[in-house]
Every structure is written in structure tokens, then in C-alpha cells.
Amino acid sequence: MDRIRIEHYAGDDANAHAFVGIGFHLWFSYETCVAFATKGYVVVSENAWSTTTGRHIGCIPHDKRHRIPLEEFEAKLRKFLDAHGLIG
Q: For the chain, which residues make up each domain, given as ranges?
């Protein structure tokens, strides 16, 4: 059975956490997924939320020039979650 661990990625901020599984990461700000990674690539949404979420996104290791609009991010996230059996 695959194991998933939870990590905080923005210092001591308990509202910035990542779910790390075998072959993937899901980064959250509060309860909102803002980025994911698998197989050597990272997909990050532009900040469509608060200043704090913007700070959380800035702590994710990626090139900020490659952030994508929220609607595009959500479509890619749905495909990613489906491909990994994380949604039905």
C-alpha cells in the first residue's frame, strides 16, 4: 500500500502543507491545492487568493515565470488526480 506523508513547506506555518506520496507532491495553502508535481515537473497556479497564499506559493520550489491561470491549473489538477487514482 502506498504511503502519504504530510510536510509543512513554509517554515512553521501550519496552513502551508504538502501531501507527499510515491511519485507525487500536492501543495496546499489552507485547504486549497495550489500546486502539484510528478515525474520531474511542477505545475503551480497563479495566486488567485490571498497575500498569505501568495507567500505559500512563493515557498514552492519552481520557476515563478511558469505559473498558470487558475482555470488551466484546475483542469490539469483534475487530470493529475484522476491519473493517480486520487479521485473517482
A: 5-83
